[in-house]
Specification:
Layout lengths: L1 E7 L11 H13 L2 E7 L5 H9 L4 E5 L5 H14 L5 E4 L1 H6 L11 E3 L4 H11 L8 H5 L4 E5 L2 E4 L29 E3 L2 E2 L11 H4 L4 E2 L2 H15 L4 E3 L8 H13 L6 E3 L9 H9 L2 E9 L3 H6 L6 H13 L3 E8 L6 H14 L2 E6 L7 H9 L1 E2 L17 E2 L5 H13 L3 E2 L9 H17 L2 H21 L1
Parallel strand pairs: 1-2, 1-3, 3-4, 4-5, 8-11, 11-12, 12-13, 13-14, 14-15, 15-18
Antiparallel strand pairs: 5-6, 6-7, 9-10, 16-17
């Protein structure tokens, strides 16, 4: 039996939770091969567990990375390589899809997978099962979505066609993760891809521009599976664009109601210009408690320049519809995009104060191959080394400046946001308070795991509403 290790470096991530990317890889390769898969999430593992995991014998190691976790991934890989010099190390994830051939400039990485990874990784495992096949250049050249070395050159194979029917994928391998160590909601994804092209976003490098949805029935089956096998968790949908098709949202809500699923859920990637009163009300009835929407800026000209393809008037109307239906809305803003000034930052702050109960501000961070990256290179200048793997180590996180918005003004903007009472990722962030950590521990460790679903859901909804009232009264 082929032994596979899948590693999720997450010590630097802002929120700990099961990796959907690793989960899908594990379930797909297990479905199609006779393999033994082990998973390590470094964010919730002890040093002793990490060392023991790296000492085990494997036939291949896969590592899923973002730009933020690249440094940790390299450190782990080098440590593993010391005791296992002949085991192939394969990198994948968002950072690989952005960097492509540059990723293999690091010697410890043997192969890399870009784009949608399930089928490509599975074909690599098929080769590994045939001894010495990874030295077969002809065989490697036939794997779409693969990056490999051929003597002194780095070869980037043609991209793999996207999976057209996501319902054919097995559910993520939840059982391989230490779910009880995660103090949070259960992540799910109901679609891949985004038809929009925001200047700062690199999502299309991974999932492409075509939006591909799962069917409502398939989504509900996964939720039933989670509830049956692991207990009641609040569900968090992590789509880039959850509600591109409102008919699908309507059908999904119908499935929640028909199946009498008493489980709260929310969405992180929601187009607020695509909503109406009927759908918002049905979402709330079906269990939707909260949404996070990317507003970026309240200034109309900035929205046009970054390609949001929605107006601030549409955004305000959508927020009102959702909040009127009883759904909490968190607005996410970005400070420092092209055209930003202290005046436009103030516009965003005032919009948040008028229209939202909760808002979060972050500073603009450019990534390679995005329009924002090209804009900085052409019109501005980097204030730090232009290495996206180190941007998160910059505090405060002011990465670049432009003639119309200097570094000093960007720092001033961060202070404006903080003085208005909002969190800003460009400042010196504080760690989660002890009381908040204790609250989450109680809610997610005990509430949903030991109380009947009907009771736990009612308590959770009550606490959410109570928290909202407390904030609105301040």
């Amino acid at each position: 039996m082929t032994r596979i290790a899948l590693i999720y470096p997450s010590k630097q991530t802002s929120e700990l939770g099961m990796s959907l990317g690793i989960g899908y890889l594990a379930s797909f390769v297990s479905q199609n091969n006779d393999v033994d898969v082990k998973v390590l999430d470094t964010g919730v593992s002890t040093e002793k567990e990490l060392n023991a995991f790296l000492q085990n014998g494997y036939d291949a190691v896969g590592v899923s990375i973002t730009s933020r976790t690249y440094g940790e991934a390299i450190e782990i890989s080098r440590k593993f390589r010391q005791s296992h010099p002949n085991v192939p190390i394969i990198f994948g994830g968002p950072h690989v899809s952005i960097m492509r051939q540059d990723i293999l400039k690091e010697p410890v990485i043997d192969l890399a997978v870009y784009g949608e990874g399930e089928i490509t990784f599975n074909e690599i495992i098929n080769l590994i099962r045939k001894r010495n096949s990874l030295s077969n250049i002809e065989a490697l050249s036939k794997i779409e979505g693969l990056i490999f070395r051929n003597s002194d050159s780095i070869v980037v194979n043609p991209p793999r066609p996207l999976i057209s029917d996501l319902d054919t994928l097995p559910f993520p391998a939840h059982h391989l993760f230490p779910l009880k160590r995660y103090e949070g909601k259960m992540p799910m994804i109901t679609s891949r891809g985004c038809p929009y092209a925001c200047a700062f976003c690199s999502s299309s490098q991974i999932w492409g521009r075509k939006w591909r949805p799962r069917s409502p029935k398939n989504i509900i089956e996964e939720i039933k599976y989670i509830l049956r096998e692991f207990g009641t968790y609040p569900i968090d949908f992590h789509d880039d664009s959850f509600n591109i098709d409102l008919k699908r949202v309507n059908a999904l809500c119908d499935e929640f109601l028909i199946n009498n699923l008493k489980v709260p859920w929310g969405v992180r990637g929601f187009r607020v210009d695509k909503i109406n009163n009927h759908i918002a009300t049905k979402m709330q009835r079906a269990g939707c408690t909260h949404l996070a929407i990317g507003i970026e800026s309240a200034n109309p000209q900035i929205l046009k320049r970054i390609g949001k393809r929605e107006t601030i008037e549409q955004i305000a109307i959508g927020i009102k519809i959702l909040r009127s239906a009883g759904i909490k809305v968190t607005g996410q803003f970005m400070v420092g995009n092209p055209g930003e000034t202290l005046e436009t930052v103030q516009e965003s702050i005032e919009f948040a104060q008028k229209n939202l109960g909760k808002a979060f501000f972050g500073t603009a961070v450019p990534f390679p191959k995005t329009e924002l990256w090209e804009y900085v290179n052409e019109h501005g200048s980097f204030l730090v080394e232009p290495d996206c793997t180190t941007f998160e180590n910059t505090h405060p996180r002011i990465i670049f400046e432009t003639p119309e918005f200097s570094a000093q003004q960007r720092l001033q903007a961060v202070e404006m946001v903080k003085q208005a009472g909002y969190t800003c990722a460009g400042g010196y962030e504080k760690k989660q308070s002890y009381l908040r950590a204790l609250r989450n521990k109680i809610i997610y460790t005990y509430l949903f795991r030991f109380l009947p679903p009907t009771i736990s859901t009612r308590i959770y909804t009550f606490l959410q509403r109570l928290k909202g009232r407390e904030k609105s009264s301040k």
